[in-house]
Description:
The chain is an alpha+beta fold. It has one domain. Helices cover 48% and strands 22% of the residues. A three-stranded antiparallel sheet has the order 1-2-3, with helices on one face. α2 runs antiparallel to α4 (83-95). The longest helix has 45 residues, at 20-64.
Amino acid sequence: MSSQNHSSPTARSGWGDEGSVSIYMVVFFLPLLMAVGLVFDGGAKVEAIGQARDLADNAARVGAQQVATSAYRGGVASVPIDQTDAAQAVDAYLSATQAQVVTIRFPQADRIEVEVEIEVDYLLLPGGATVSATGAATTEQG
């Protein structure tokens, strides 16, 4: 018996399959990771938008509860909002949340509009976003 080297043709030529799985993983794993990031981080942004709307609506309701009692007792048709008390109440309400007050407007004497912003930190994608929402409330006599 003779001892001969029976190596495969690919091993001798140097053009084997080694490393082909690595290239496949790089080519397909990175886009897959980005797609997963869009799902998770997109969901976080949608959730933050809903939370901002809810906080803006509730802050406006809190502000609308600050009525000018002197005018209310005077028997006026619409109940005006005490703007100073309303702004303080909105700030106090939102201080316990992660929302920042952007603007507080009083387009009419009995109406308040509150705009808030929430910062969204992305988990997988780089960066983050800021979402904003506006809530409004009107006083009613009843």
